[in-house]
Amino acid sequence: MNNEFIESHIHDIPDFPKEGIIFKDISPLLASAKARSITTELLVRDFRGQTIDVVVGIESRGFLFGMLLADALNAKFVMLRKPGKLPGAIISQEYELEYGTDTLELQENAISPGDCVLIHDDVLATGGTAIAAAQIIQKAGGKVEGFNFVIELDFINGREKIKDYKIASVLHY
Ligand SMILES: O=P(O)(O)OC[C@H]1O[C@H](OP(=O)(O)OP(=O)(O)O)[C@H](O)[C@@H]1O
Ligand SMILES: Nc1ncnc2[nH]cnc12
User: How is the chain split into domains, by residue range?
Assistant: First the structure.
């Protein structure tokens, strides 16, 4: 019931940003207060009761529910950003995307050694972004407690890359 409601707020956009990619557009989900609130509750559900010191959100769509999750779990929120956006000393990690390559960066002092970290993003596709995120958090001394996603593209099997971690996705395609 809830899943159908959320699903109706995600639109398929064919051939974006490249031919052959069916882009899952979460804009309608963001626009609806009710859909945001249900989605946040479903994301929180699997990690409630676990120690989560920090929610890490991946630029840019991982920031959106990432902040709501951090609020709901009473945790710190930290950004993983694309290159050149964060000031000061940074740690970086290159990765491959479903449609290209990119780099993630983290501020050196953003994670304290031993912090229990939940990594959040809107979509799990190839898993390249997710595994890079885990690597960068570990470089900083954080303990990755798991991942959650609004959408998991099962047919790409990105979860294989992060199979050693707890993974919770609201919707599967
Ligand atoms: O599992 P993967 O194959 O690595 O793909 C998933 C990533 O791709 C998208 O980000 P994108 O780089 O398009 O950035 P955006 O959030 O700024 O649109 C999505 O938001 C995830 O971060
Ligand atoms: N098909 C897709 N839709 C939305 N975001 C994505 N990120 C990677 N693949 C994606």
Answer: 48-172
Strands 54-58 and 22-25: unpaired
List, for residues 3-18, the tens digit of each pLDDT value: 999 999 999 999 999 9
**CATH 3.40.50.2020 given to domain 48-172:** yes
User: Would you name the residues annotated as active-site residues?
Assistant: 61, 98
Is the CB–ligand 1 distance for residue 61 below 6 Å?
A: yes
Q: How far is Cα 7 from Cα 23, in angstroms, rounded to an integer?
A: 14
Give me ligand 2 centre to Cα 132, in Å: 16
Closest-approaching ligand to the CA atom of 149: 1
Q: What pTM does this model have? A: 0.97
Is residue 97 within 6 Å of ligand 1 at its C-beta? yes
By 3-state DSSP, what share of the chain in percent is helix, strand and coil, each rounded to 5? 30, 35, 35
